[in-house]
Inverse folding.
């Protein structure tokens, strides 16, 4: 009896899906490694490696996944709040990332300059300005969604197509290189650990602390479940939705700075390309309903890293960058099909009839 | 009853604004770049030729958006179509067979998407996002190179692409004193036929009206006895079918296939439809509006191209600005309407 309860509890848990997906990815990796004779558990191996610069860094596939998945995880944080509060997705985050990266690099290099070794402006100014610009974009999206009652997807469509273009304009149609170690720090290593991992960890910690310690998380959920009822209950629904978008923009800004620091340049055309899809996918994979309401931050984060793990695994299996989306698409469809209400109803019916037969 | 009248009015106003805006934009182009040939009829026809594919796709997108759905897989599907045609023709498959194959692929693809949206009730955005990933990836699976169609690979297809349908009016004298008649290409004819057919389908057929009904209110449509699931599925099949036709038009214009082709086309189609007065909430919209939306998009990029000095990112920014304007106007109308009903 107790076992059954535990099983049903696990079945109902939101985290079931992302964790199962993660385990599947690991299983595929282990099988592949064992088949190629690289040692069954080389996926989990983390070693210290000597770099040319006389430092030691952590090296291993898990570290790589955590490192590369940082941007998607950051975006997924903001996206979770947006999806929860407004029952819609912010499809502009990838473009906003690119814009923030371009603006930050433009400030650091000076307008119209394509490559610098010395910073034109203090580092903190560029970083803060880039992140603030992200907030501004989020505020714009939030204004359209919350105040003008425009469907989130349409409202964010504007910046989706404009932000990347503005980023190109800001950079004068150039790829701006900022070849400076202090700027490259955000995409490289702090001691042995990659900095993006640390930044993401800090962001996750702060956000979850805020959501735990204040009532903000509950407010966002209640607005998402029923905006009108929340308003009657005394919440300023519009302000909360607006805030969710600003936070989403903030994380897009941080992700943009990290992404540009990683390549020490602002490549407007490629930074954050299709990353909004990864972020939305991470939220869906994390067991969050895209119809708004309850959210689970941990699920989204695991979802984001799972997607990165899938991508890395595909590359390890020898699938080319351009072909990887086929598998991603199939995985997405399987995941959402499992969660689809008619499929769930069908499964329930089947299990019910099974128990009925058992009773008889 | 009164309520209906109000909503009808605000929609016609939106359509009117779109048409007026197109005329103003084009007039501006004529005044600013009259000396660069902007006033010639051919410039307008060139906009049609380059955007013929987009017109078909926007028609399909409008039908999907009427049911409150969205289909962002169209860009990928166009890329896949172009690649299929380019690779197929180079392998020596006859052009008519290839065209049929592409359309068949589109219909099957639409059936799958429609099944997921209609019968499994998964969000259209997620389904078509998966569709986008799938088609883009499949394009790369077919070939990662830039494949072009030459006269050698398929004379018939080459002839189709280069066939000029001369118009009997609107010519001008060139430097040598010879009259140059304006021309259109086959893809424009296809696009215009699609436009007219879809216009009448939405207006006068049972399926067309049921699209509006499902988008207006799914529950009422179901109560009226409509099979909502099947209507939704058919909308996606129609969209992918039109998208395949659009892909052929696109391919006739570019004569090549590559993974990066038609990048962001889905957003062009959506923004055209929105500028044309189609609401993403469903139930309101018209293909004529979408047609003018496409023309506005085309005019903007044409003006920027004619100027030559402006950065290549300006069309995107201007279109986004227009989109913003139209969305705000729509939301104002919606606010007025909801006040009146109250």
């Amino acid at each position: 009896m107790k076992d059954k309860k535990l099983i049903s509890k696990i079945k109902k848990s939101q985290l079931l899906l992302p964790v199962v997906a993660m385990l599947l990815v690991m299983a595929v990796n282990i099988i592949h490694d064992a088949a190629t004779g690289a040692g069954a558990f080389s996926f989990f191996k983390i070693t210290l490696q000597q770099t040319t610069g006389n430092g030691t860094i952590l090296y291993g596939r898990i570290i790589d996944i955590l490192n590369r998945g940082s941007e998607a995880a950051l975006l997924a944080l903001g996206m979770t709040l947006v999806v929860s509060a407004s029952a819609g997705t912010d499809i502009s985050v990838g473009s906003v990332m690119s814009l923030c990266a371009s603006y930050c690099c433009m400030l650091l290099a000076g307008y119209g300059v394509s490559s610098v070794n010395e910073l034109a402006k203090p580092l903190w100014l560029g970083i803060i300005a880039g992140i603030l610009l992200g907030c501004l974009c989020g505020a714009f999206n939030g204004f359209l969604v919350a105040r003008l009652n425009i469907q989130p997807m349409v409202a964010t469509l504007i910046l989706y197509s404009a932000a990347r273009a503005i980023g190109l304009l800001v950079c004068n149609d150039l790829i701006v290189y900022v070849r400076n170690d202090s700027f490259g720090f955000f995409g490289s290593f702090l001691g042995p650990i990659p900095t993006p991992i640390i930044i993401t960890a800090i962001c996750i910690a702060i956000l979850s602390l805020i959501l735990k310690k204040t009532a903000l998380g509950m407010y966002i959920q209640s607005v998402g479940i029923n905006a009108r009822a929340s308003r009657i209950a005394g919440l300023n629904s519009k302000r909360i939705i607006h805030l969710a978008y600003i936070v989403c923009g903030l994380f897009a800004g941080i992700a943009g700075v990290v992404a540009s620091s990683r390549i020490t340049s602002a490549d407007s055309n490629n930074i954050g390309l299709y990353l909004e899809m990864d972020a939305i996918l991470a939220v869906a994979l994390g067991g969050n309903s895209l119809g708004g309401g309850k959210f689970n931050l941990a699920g989204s984060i695991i979802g984001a890293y799972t997607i990165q793990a899938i991508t890395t695994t595909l590359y390890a299996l020898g699938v080319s960058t351009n072909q990887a989306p086929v598998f991603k698409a199939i995985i997405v469809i399987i995941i959402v099909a499992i969660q689809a209400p008619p499929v769930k109803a069908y499964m329930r019916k089947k299990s019910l009839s099974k128990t009925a037969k058992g009773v008889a | 009853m009164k309520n209906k009248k109000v909503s009808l009015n605000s929609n016609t106003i939106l359509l009117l604004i779109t048409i007026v805006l197109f005329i103003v934009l084009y007039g501006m182009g004529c005044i600013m770049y009259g000396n660069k040939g902007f006033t010639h009829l051919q410039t307008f026809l060139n906009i049609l030729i380059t955007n013929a594919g987009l017109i078909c796709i926007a028609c399909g997108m409008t039908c999907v958006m009427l049911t409150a759905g969205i289909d962002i897989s169209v860009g990928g599907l166009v890329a896949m179509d172009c690649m299929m045609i380019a690779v197929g023709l180079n392998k020596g498959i006859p052009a008519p067979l290839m065209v049929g194959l592409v359309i068949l692929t589109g219909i099957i693809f639409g059936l799958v998407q429609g099944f997921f949206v209609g019968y499994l009730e998964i969000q259209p955005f997620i389904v078509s996002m998966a569709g986008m990933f799938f088609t883009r990836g499949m394009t790369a699976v077919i070939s990662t190179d830039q494949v072009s169609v030459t006269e050698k690979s398929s004379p018939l297809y080459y002839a189709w692409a280069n066939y000029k349908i001369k118009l009997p009016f609107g010519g001008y004298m060139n430097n040598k004193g010879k009259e140059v008649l304006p021309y259109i290409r086959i893809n424009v004819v296809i696009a215009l036929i699609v436009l007219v057919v879809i216009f009448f389908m939405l207006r006068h057929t049972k399926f067309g009206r049921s699209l509006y009904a499902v988008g207006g209110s799914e529950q009422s449509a179901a109560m009226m006895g409509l099979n909502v699931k099947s209507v939704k599925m058919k909308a996606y099949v129609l969209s992918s079918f039109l998208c395949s036709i659009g892909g052929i038009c696109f391919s006739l214009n570019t004569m090549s296939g590559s993974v990066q082709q038609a990048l962001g086309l889905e957003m062009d189609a959506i923004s055209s439809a929105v500028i044309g007065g189609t609401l993403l909430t469903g139930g309101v919209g018209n293909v004529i509006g979408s047609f003018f939306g496409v023309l506005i998009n085309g005019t903007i990029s044409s003006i920027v191209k004619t100027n030559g000095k402006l950065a290549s990112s300006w069309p995107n920014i201007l279109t986004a600005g227009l989109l913003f304007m139209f969305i705000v106007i729509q939301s104002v109308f919606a606010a007025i309407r909801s006040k009146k009903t109250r």
User: Anything to note?
Assistant: Chain B touches chain A through 48 residues (CB under 8 Å). The two ends of chain B are 14 Å apart (CA to CA). DSSP finds 14 helices and six strands in chain B. Residues 2-32 of chain B form the longest helix (31 residues).
